[in-house]
């Protein structure tokens, strides 16, 4: 078997593992939404509002996950597995600290924050607050799972993250309907099921770390402040990058909402489809994080660059396929989401933009993973902020001011994707990200 074949198998294996982990949470949310939905409009609306808050609070954890992957992968590529796992130990300490702080802050601001999101509907804000105050207790478990995913991907363990995430979500999917209905806990039962599953997942990630601590390969289980500081620096850049995404998406949704109900509904349909496609395409990015980081850690810049372009080609192929499916379903797909003629019409307005972004997005997400794996996070932060502030947000606001309609909003999203693609393609081609060694200095 040639080295190319081995590399292809490894890319596919890592991408498949990442896809299962990425897809598990949205699939569970669909189940939980269906369970709560039968309680009525108010509990369902409360779940939606509180879920938005939880997503924002978990933002740091997602950045910690990606940063840990790149750092652990470099040590793994250099043949220092214990040092790679130590990144997971320190990331887990950070997950507990950040999670504890987020619980305290979340409990303090739960009431005003849910009222701000919901507006004047007291019954919905009360439902959201009651769910949030329980569910937020599971946030340290969520962050432990994210930290665990980070180091496990860094050492190219494709099985353990899948087992942990699938088991945790199965527990939640079973507990939620039982606690909501037979136990009579209603919406609060959904929150309790979430907390139980999240702590089970977090505990399993800690146990995975402890299994690595053997007499032959002892680990430093105590806190290592220099390592933790390095992880916080990486997380800072990735959090700023994620904040640019959230600001852009919230601006676009606000603009679409001011255009009318049909425009907002169609925008939500389009964004759900785009986010789902991005989820699938992001599995290649996660494979790139691990493989590129390991190559650079092992001092093989040529392998890192070769992997970058190969993963990008796979992303392009996947993006073309998704775009073709979306183009073929331009009529049937909107019909499946809404029977309202006005909503369907607005969906057709944004559809060409959605289809056109797929191939570019496939390459873009792969390059995201390449640069995160290389630890080039300051560039990622900058190019995302510039693309959002100079592309997406201004164009979306102009669409409202100059009455360009929903097509103008999606032109802004397309410009956001295009600017990031150009910036990262040029950066990847320049080779300035090819910094070899166990750490990026």
UniProtKB/TrEMBL annotation:
Q: Does the keyword Kinase apply?
A: no
- Where is this protein found? Membrane
The membrane-spanning stretches of this chain are 12-31, 43-67, 88-110, 130-152, 164-185, 314-333, 353-372, 379-402, 408-426
Short name of any one Pfam family annotated for the protein = MatE
Top-rank taxon of the source lineage equals: Bacteria
Write the record's keywords in alphabetical order, separated by commas: Membrane, Transmembrane, Transmembrane helix
> For this UniProt entry, what is the primary localization, expressed as one broad class?
membrane
Gene Ontology CC terms, in alphabetical order? plasma membrane
Similarity annotation: Belongs to the multi antimicrobial extrusion (MATE) (TC 2.A.66.1) family.
Q: What is this protein called?
A: Putative efflux protein, MATE family
Q: Which organism is it from?
A: Nakamurella panacisegetis
